[in-house]
Amino acid sequence: MFRNKKRQQQASKNKDPKTIGDVLDHLGKSRDFVHFQHGNTHFSCWISYFRTLIDIDYVHRDVFPFLYSDSIRNMADIKDQLPLEKLIQTKDIHEIQSKLLEGYIIIQKDERSPECLIVPSVKIQGRQIEKSEVETSIIGPKETFVESIDTNINLIRKRIPVPQLTLKEIRVGKLSRTQVGIIYIDGIASEENVNTVLQRIQSLEVASLIDATMLALMITDNNWTIFPQFTDTERPDRVSGAVYEGKIAVLVDGSPNALILPSTIVEFFAAFDDYFLPWNISSAYRLLRLFAVALSALSSSLYVALLTYHYQLLPKDLLGSLISSRSSVPFDPVMEVLILEVMIELLREAGARLPTKVGQTIGIVGGIVIGTATVQAGLSSNILLIIIAMSALAAFITPNYRMATTIRFIRFPFIISAQMFGLLGIGMCFTYFVTHLIRLTSLGRPYIEPIFPFRASDLKDAFIRLPFQLQNSRPMFLRPGDPARMNTTRTSQEKGKKSPDIDE
Amino acid sequence: MRIKILLLCLFLLLLTGCLPSNIIDDILMVEAEGYDYLGKGQIMGTATMPNYVESGNPGSQGAGLPSTAAMMRYISGVTYDGKSLVDKFQPEGQRQLKIGKIRVMLFDDKLARHGLSKQLDFRNRDPDTPRDLTLAVVEGSTREMLTAADYQTQIPVSRYIQDLIQQNSQQNYPDSDLAQILYSYYGEYMDAFMPIIQKQGDHLALVGVAAFKKDKYVMKIDGDDVFVFKMLFQPFDQGVYDYEFARGKHIALRNVHTSASFKVRNGNSSSPDIYARVKISAQVRQAFPGSISKKNADHITKLLNRHLEWEARQLVHRFQTYRVDPLGLGNTVRSFTYRFDGHSWPDRYPHARFHCRVNVNIVQTGISQ
Fold it and tell me: Using an 8 Å Cβ cutoff, are B355 and B317 in contact?
């Protein structure tokens, strides 16, 4: 305890740079820091930059020629003649330091003069916009976010060409000073929600921020829950759809994910593809996903409960095959289930960590070799293998990866409570999760909103998706500034007089 | 608080082993019980339980017996009437004997005539009793029926019996599941009935319905009369009635729908009038060539109506002479009568006048030309 205090005191003793000389001396220790004097007959100045951060081509082509030209006589001339829109002249040491570290060029009259001119020359290096790989879709847009925030904002802004689209910028992280962008449509997004987001992000006390999902965990309402409270997505179309709805998107520089706040639990089970299919088909798929979640969470624990305690409930035609396939298994049902569940989790984890090329072999090894070998070795029964494989498959149906991990994890408490009390245990565990979900909030809004508190109007886009002409209001959940999506009287107007096809 | 919850979870985890469990491959599930009456309050009890085949290599299916095939195992022993057979036979079982999946309970006709009150009371009391338990009376020995190895089918005998009874309950035989039997056994102004099965050589057959007076089997409804009984007892379809309208000339009808409605007059008098009105929609399944067509359907229908009416009256008359009421006529009278005098009903029942009107409507005669 005391040691920790001492360590924290030491950390705060780090000396701040007092003068520009301190800054330059300190940065000069890095090998990629360039600091040199430029001089010709009329004018001389000191130029410093990090050569790994600036766009060298750009500097040589567009900045230095002007500096070396004869018409430059003093610092003011530079400011006038450089054809750049954003030159800053400042004495603020902190700004100078941070700009240097972001890839700007500093120009000084003398080596130690506090007056600096900051020239933007940031090199943007990142990957191209690629096809979606995490949230794939068959039809619809394929673009995904990349690691550069400017590109990401561009992807959103070109889908929402309205002046009300507002971008707020906050720097997060004591050391990293990561750029965080908050995007919403002024007038549609609830002001309260915007203020909550701003306040939560501004009051963060962290050293660094690497990714948007990290930010989601930092600003979450409840730190103990296993349920994700904010949707993360790599699809700009999904983000813009949410922003049009009145939600708030948060982008983090260096992260290919955007956060959508606030979210309800049903949104995690809605794929964006649902909006590209006819409403009845997509509703059927949403219900299928709901069924898959129930199957995934409950099937293995039901197996444990039924085989351990409630043999009366087993269908009589299934008894024979269940018993004969279990007769050579030496374990109790719960051990058998846990062994197979852990095995599937190992396979999934191995598949996720391995390089792509080796990953395919893991699928074959895991699925075929281990699966059949376990049964043949008598470590588990045939029927259980099918159940576990089905529930693993069903867990991956969840479109959101973070929710999918939650669904996979949630079955373990169910299995253990099924072993403890049978069906009663499953009921108790279910009750626990339901009460937990009822108490959860996302940005202060109820997490399982269309169900509790019950909002019939929000059910239009929850478990089933009604046709677009009926989706004429924004979700009540968001308390939007402008609830109506469109003029309802006009959508319900008759299109015209019907004329018979065939004159009789 | 948090520590308390953690401790609670820990205790729950540690104490799970103390809960009795019924892991399905560690119990013996009794599938059929048979009771043969030996006289003087002694019975010979028989229980069968399947031993599911342990195939040598569970991964490679296909060889050997199918997984549903089971080696039946049976235990018999003499005990007193009303003893739980599971408790009696537990010393002979290497695993726990469990009653929760029992399919059939068989009583031989001697025990049925002696009375089933102890068995029915025991089954009613036992929470482990499954919902789809089938009760039946056996003509002959239940032990022989349950232990015989000469059946033409490989499926376990318990399943054979249950399938036989359940399948026929969809057709000519009336519903006689556990709920129905217990309801009519404990209910007022009605009596229970059970199907009767018989082992005929290498197969089993339903031969009629046993009508009970309280817990004693007193009257047998023959297989031919079961259609008439069911017609008065419950609405149904898919039954087949064979009518011999002239010597050697038959017509068989499959009923599409049958419903009976009752009316009662003078319910508290010494001889109440019970009016039954039965509507049958039927299609002709088989007919003597040229006997029925669109033209003369009316004629045959009239004959059939009169015949069925007569049969129904005869059947009820026999019930009245035996003083059994499997149709629940007493209950019908009660429901039609204001301030029904239930006390004197058993004395008035034999004198009740039963009137029956049957209306057969032939919806389809089939192709006849």
Answer: no
Residue A233 — pLDDT band, cuts 50, 70, 90? very high
Cα atoms found within 13 Å of the Cα of residue A147, Cβ hemisphere only: 8
Cβ neighbourhood burial of B7 (10 Å; 0-12, 13-18, 19+): exposed
pLDDT, tens digit (0-9, with 9 covering 90-100), for A118-145 = 888 887 777 888 888 888 888 888 899 9
* Phi, psi dihedrals of residue A226, rounded to the nearest 5°: -95, -5
**Segment A214-235 mean pLDDT:** 92
Enumerate residues 6+ apart whose C-beta is below 8 A from B319. B211, B219, B325, B326, B327, B329
- pLDDT at residue B63, rounded to an integer: 43
Q: What residues pair up with B107 in beta bridges, in sequence order? A: B35, B137
Instruction: Kindly indicate the confidence band of residue A12, based on its pLDDT and cuts at 50, 70 and 90.
Output: low
Nearest to A320 among B58, B70, B128 (CB): B70
For the stretch A451-501, pLDDT in tens is 989 999 899 888 899 998 888 889 999 999 888 888 777 766 766 777 777
CB pairs under 8 A between A and B: 78
Give the full edge-to-edge strand order of the sheet including A248-252. A165-172, A178-185, A248-252, A258-261, A231-233
Using a CB–CB cut-off of 8 Å, the residues of B that contact A are 12-13, 16, 19, 21-25, 27, 29, 50, 52-55, 57-61, 67-70, 98, 100-101, 103, 128, 130, 159
What's at B115, amino acid-wise? G
Q: Tell me: the pLDDT tens digits for A164-193?
A: 999 999 999 988 889 999 999 999 999 999
Determine the Cα–Cα distance for residues B69 and A215; give it in Å rounded to an integer.
Answer: 60
pLDDT value of position B150: 86
Sketch the domain layout of chain A as residue ranges.
18-120, 149-263, 277-446
| Nearest-angstrom CA–CA distance, B369 and A427 | 65
For the structural domain made of B235-369, what CATH number should be given?
Answer: 3.30.300.210
Asked if the Cβ–Cβ distance from B25 to A323 is below 8 Å, we say: yes
Q: Provide the 8-state DSSP code for A43.
A: -
Residue B120 identity (one-letter amino acid): L
- How far from the centroid of its chain's Cα atoms is residue A243's Cα? 15
* Six-digit token string for B241: 């009635």
Q: Where are the domains of chain B?
A: 22-53+68-222, 235-369
- The count of other CB atoms within 10 Å of the CB of residue A100 is 22
Chain B residue with the nearest C-alpha to that of A416: B13
Verify whether the Cβ–Cβ distance A323 to B52 is below 8 Å. yes
Residues of A within an 8 Å Cβ radius of B: 307-312, 314, 316-317, 319-329, 332-333, 372, 375-376, 378, 381-382, 416, 419-421
Closest in B16, B52, B68 to A419, CB measured: B16
Residue B58 to residue A309, Cβ atoms within 8 A? no
CB atoms within 10 A of CB B189: 19
Contacts of A312 in chain B (CB under 8 A): 100-101, 128, 130
Q: What is the DSSP string of B76-139?
A: EEEEETT--HHHHHGGG-SSEEE-TT--EEEEEHHHHHH--HHHHHHHHH-TT--TT-EEEEEE
Question: Packing angle between helix A279-308 and helix A333-353, nearest 10 degrees?
Answer: 140
Taking chain B (369 residues) in runs of 10, the rounded mean pLDDT of each run is: 86 76 87 92 91 57 48 85 87 88 93 92 89 93 91 86 93 92 93 94 93 94 93 92 88 91 92 94 87 80 93 95 94 93 92 94 81
The distance of B73 to chain A (nearest Cα, Å) reads 15
Spatial CA neighbour of B159 closest among B181, B182, B180, B134 = B134
ipTM of the complex: 0.82
Let me know: does B220 contact B209? Beta carbons within 8 Å: yes
Please give the structure tokens belonging to residue A90: 């400042």
Both tokens assigned to A185: 């449509």
